[in-house]
Design brief:
Elements: H1 3-16, E1 20-21, H2 46-50, H3 55-59, E2 63-71, E3 87-95, H4 101-113, E4 125-130, H5 140-149, E5 154-158, H6 160-163, E6 164-165, E7 172-183, E8 189-202, E9 208-221, H7 222-229, H8 242-252, H9 259-280, H10 289-309, H11 317-323, H12 329-356, H13 362-372, H14 376-384, H15 392-414, H16 422-442, E10 447-453, E11 458-463
Parallel strand pairs: 1-2, 4-5
Antiparallel strand pairs: 2-3, 3-9, 4-7, 6-7, 7-8, 8-9, 10-11
The structure holds glycine.
Length: 472
Amino acid sequence: MDSKVIRQKFIDFFKSKGHKIVSSSSLVPENDSSVLFTTAGMQQFKPYFVGTKDPVKDFGNKNLTSVQKCFRTSDIDLVGDESHLTFFEMLGNFSIGGYGKKEAIGYAWELMTSEDWYGLPQDRFFATIFAGDNEIPADEESEKFWKEVAPSIEVKKTGREENFWPNPVWVGTCGPSSELHYILDDGSSIEVWNLVFTQYFHSEDGSFKDLGQINIDTGMGLERLAMIAQEKSSIFETDLFWSIITEIEKHTGQKYSEVANQSKMRIIADHLRAAVYLIVDGVRPSNKLEGYILRRLLRRVAVKTFQLKDSLTPQLYSILQTIIDVHEHREVENVTEQELERFGKTLDRGLKEIKKIARIDGKLAFDLYQTYGFPLEVTEELFRQKGQQIDHKQFEEEFKNHQEISRAGIGKFAGGLAGHSETEIKYHTATHLLQQALRDILGPEVFQKGSNITAERLRFDFSFDRRLTDQE
Ligand code: GLY
């Protein structure tokens, strides 16, 4: 079953169950500043889930279905294995005050296993449900409903990490989830469909309030579904990726069947595909926010390509052609080519420089970033292969020193205007404390993006992929 049929069957199935088809929203959310990218199908429906908008008024229906373009940075380090991606298409059905758990579970089982639809073997599936904890009760109803539709299915109980969405919980609607997993030929299993029952509103004070109704929010990755429906051992061997992989083989003169090439080719395929869709939705390479994420994707494509063929040709026409429609081609081509050409100028020298480094440290990593444009994670990955790690603290120290030097330069020119009062020195110390506090609470991926200090206030910019809760 090719991926076009899989997509169409999903939509047809939910249409036959009275759902309204809604088109995908942009990868860059329009009215939601809490996230950089669209990461789930429900995101465009948030106002309906919290009740500030009425789905019947806007869509003429409480039950909706979509195929949503999604981009997640959270799995970026896992890309290269059999089943993880940054960009993917999420198949979803949603109900805002329409149906409940029983129907959602029944639909999922029918679509997956009925001969009229995907017809996948029943005995390959197991389900998971939320086991409950000291704040939220166990989801016993879902277990009952699974047993009703699929008496022989195994139902496993897991905790907040696995069966509560979103994770980590944001301010807004959330709830227990139930997942369908598929057992692969080698005995391992893969999560395919996440059914979320949004029953609660998680407030800024950290409490969970009952919404008074259960809403349905489901998400299934098209690529993983294609992998099991097409009986492949990785998503990259499905029809969604195979032509891209073949073009990468031609472009680099290397074979995917060589195990040593696989993760590199998968990363190129994923990152390039993601970059294309980001560009189509208006993102352009830059040093800030969405733009820097796009830049990092393309730089990683460049490094991996270089590793495979020892040179970089910024013209990726034939690979891009397999990803995108002809009419959107030119713009994407211009942007990727320009970006790769720019990076290509220093890439070769940077990689040579790296070969000379016997032992990497944070300072050298910063030099590579500063001089050759190597994103920290790229340098990190290149040295990880040699069994070496980079001290992020030291990298940041360098980053900060560098910013201070540039600032001092500006200060000189500005003369008395940018004087260093005692208050400003205190604010400066406070930025260091603030940065450490952010990293303690949110994790080591928080980086200072800039700061600006005057006698009246300090401003501290940092990047993080979601809005913070008040508690945080
Ligand atoms: N909103 C459901 C999911 O992302 O899995």
